[in-house]
Amino acid sequence: MTTDYSSIHEPISDLFSRLAAAADRDQYRLTDAQVAHYHEFGFVAGVRLLNDSQIEHLRGELAELVQPDHDGRSLWYEYNSNESADPDLVLFHALGAWRTRPGFHDMLWNPAFTVAASQLLGGSVRFWHDQLFCKPAHHGGVVAWHQDYSYWTRTQPMAHLTCWIGLDDATADNGCLQYVPGSHRWPLLPITGLAGDMQAIGEVLSEDQMAQLMNPTAIELKAGECAFHHPLLVHGSFANRTERPRRAAVLNVVRDGVCSSDDEPLLAGTDPIPTGQPLEGRFFPLLLDSDPQG
């Protein structure tokens, strides 16, 4: 019988450390310089979240999840073996891994993630949803330029944060993240597609914005390192033509208190949250209370 881990709002394994006391958070805190970089440029990168054994464990779970007949396949919010329209450029993209496997479930409560996320959000951390992005060797597809919040306007106000975690070394050659520094100050842009034309966003950019887009920053990361970015930061990633895969897990969170702005379910198969009510309940657990002493 398939276990749905979304009903368990605490770690269920010893894969990650746990916070026993408020003082334990200090070892995981970002420096003032890292926080300042995030606010100035819209991102901070190179933060280590996973050790080698954690990486191998998650890779093992991922190997099961990419098989179409895997146990737990009914629990995904969204599952695309290839979101690209071009069969020669493959982009595996799925939402909901935390419901299906213990490691991806427990990663949500990894203090190396939650403490840093609380600093950048300026408050308590509540889960929004996770993602897997995998580009196979030789023919890995692109993720077109976009802003995350363009896809998230059904939750308001905008107090969101994305954490992109490498399960392989990510380089400019194999399709690492590319950021447009400072674009988190741009207004909200319309959706122009996620896995098709890399340059489709150009249809909605000014000349100045387009010039900035042409000079992005490649975010090269070692496996186990992450990059945090702002929900309006324009980002994407190019194709993988190398002999190595480029696999990543993404954790998307909000500052506690963000509300639903849609009476329909926010994610496929979840319980509806009425407009104006805060995210909470089974599918949106609180990951870290910024004031555990109350």
Automatic annotation (TrEMBL):
Cross-referenced SUPFAM superfamilies: Clavaminate synthase-like
InterPro entries: Phytyl_CoA_dOase-like (IPR008775)
Cofactor: Fe(2+)
Pfam family, one: PhyH
Keyword Calcium attached: no
GO molecular function per UniProt: 2-oxoglutarate-dependent dioxygenase activity; iron ion binding
Keyword Oxidoreductase among UniProt keywords: yes
Record key words, sorted: Dioxygenase, Oxidoreductase
Superkingdom of the organism of origin: Bacteria
Name of the molecule in the record: Phytanoyl-CoA dioxygenase (PhyH)
Species of origin: Rosistilla ulvae
